[in-house]
Design goal:
8-stranded mixed beta sheet; 2-dehydropantoate 2-reductase activity; alpha/beta; 330 residues; N-(1-d-carboxylethyl)-l-norvaline Dehydrogenase, domain 2; Rossmann fold; EC 1.1.1.169
Length: 330
């Protein structure tokens, strides 16, 4: 199959490179100039696994304005707040027969994709796969090969021949995919997972394992899970897991699968970038408000993350000022 990965960040690189390794033809499209130019200069991307065996892997990467490929399927991995602009930049090469597949964090991306792709051509899912972008042209796959899992569903909840072919390629790439016919229930399970692990690990600057090791972690997780499930039930979402199964998933991934991993929200905060909290905890808050339900713990955490973002921006300004002062003295 032919894939074009839009967004050559941590997850885009992992999915694209492993699909390429499984025998597929894969291109990458990215808008971050430093990333694209670094990979052009290197002749590919440096790949590590668990901080070891760093090696160069060749790939084809393009800016959206110069891309002319014709894939069977686009794989979208961007931050929620970046997607609309990137879709506009890429629109000139989209064709009616092509599929869009995504496992982006949060909610809000599907509606944007539907502006460019037919409903029957949209496949979305969730990925419990840990990856870190160390910098431009440098990615670290966390966990042994075959670690992690994912779920996916057709937007129409009707599977077709292409979707089954996609699942087969994801199996070959060892992503351990599970195809469901419950679109919203599949996606919302990951939103709830992220609303616990991503947000709390970010606020307290700790790995998933460190969070799960705290004696009060189950109580904290359950409070957020209960609020989130209350919201989903009011909106008519049939979740694919029970509340207890969701808590079990948080514990398994945090304690066994990826205990040393810092979630993506932490990575954004640590690198002075905006987080996706509005598309995770904030999304649950707004969905609850539609039904007169106050998801107050999620609301509190959303405000807390935004306050922390302000603090990080102040820290960045101080660092930049100190750097400029040092340069002047030199």
């Amino acid at each position: 199959m032919k894939f074009t990965v839009v967004g050559a960040g941590a997850m885009g690189l992992r999915y694209g490179l492993l699909l390429q390794d499984a025998g597929n033809e894969v291109d990458f499209v990215d808008g971050w100039e430093k990333n694209v130019e670094t990979m052009h200069e290197q002749g590919g991307v440096y790949v590590s696994r668990d901080h070891e065996n760093k090696h160069l892997v060749p790939l084809n990467v393009y800016y959206p304005e110069g891309y002319t490929g014709d894939p069977d399927c686009y794989v979208f991995f961007l931050k929620q707040m970046q997607l609309a602009d990137m879709l506009e930049r890429c629109a000139h090469f989209f064709k009616p027969n092509q599929y869009a597949f995504t496992c982006m964090n949060g909610m809000g991306h599907v509606e944007k994709l539907l502006k460019y792709f037919k409903p029957e051509k949209v496949v979305a899912g969730t990925a419990l796969v840990a990856t870190v972008l160390n910098g431009a042209g440098d990615v670290d796959f966390i966990g042994k090969r075959g670690a992690g899992s994912m779920k996916l569903a057709n937007y129409t909840e009707k599977t077709d021949e292409f979707t089954h072919k996609l699942v087969e390629q994801l199996k070959k790439a060892q992503f351990n995919p599970e195809l469901t016919t419950n679109f919203r229930g599949t996606l919302m399970v990951k939103v709830v997972f992220n609303s616990v692990v991503n947000t709390l690990c970010t606020m307290f600057e700790m790995t998933m394992g460190e969070y799960a090791d705290y004696e009060g972690a189950d109580e904290m997780s359950r409070q957020l899970i209960d609020e989130a499930y209350d919201v989903c039930e009011r909106d008519g979402v049939q979740m694919i897991t029970t509340r207890q199964e969701e808590l079990d998933s948080v514990n398994y991934v945090s304690k066994v699968a990826n205990p040393l991993h810092y979630p993506s929200m932490y990575q954004d905060m640590h690198n002075y970038r905006p987080t996706e909290v509005d598309y995770i905890n904030g999304y649950l808050v707004k969905l609850g408000q539609k039904h007169g339900y106050n998801a107050k713990t999620h609301a509190f955490l959303t405000h807390e993350v935004h306050l922390a973002e302000r603090g990080k921006q102040r820290e960045l300004k101080r660092l930049q000022a100190a750097k400029e002062a040092t340069a002047v003295k030199a």
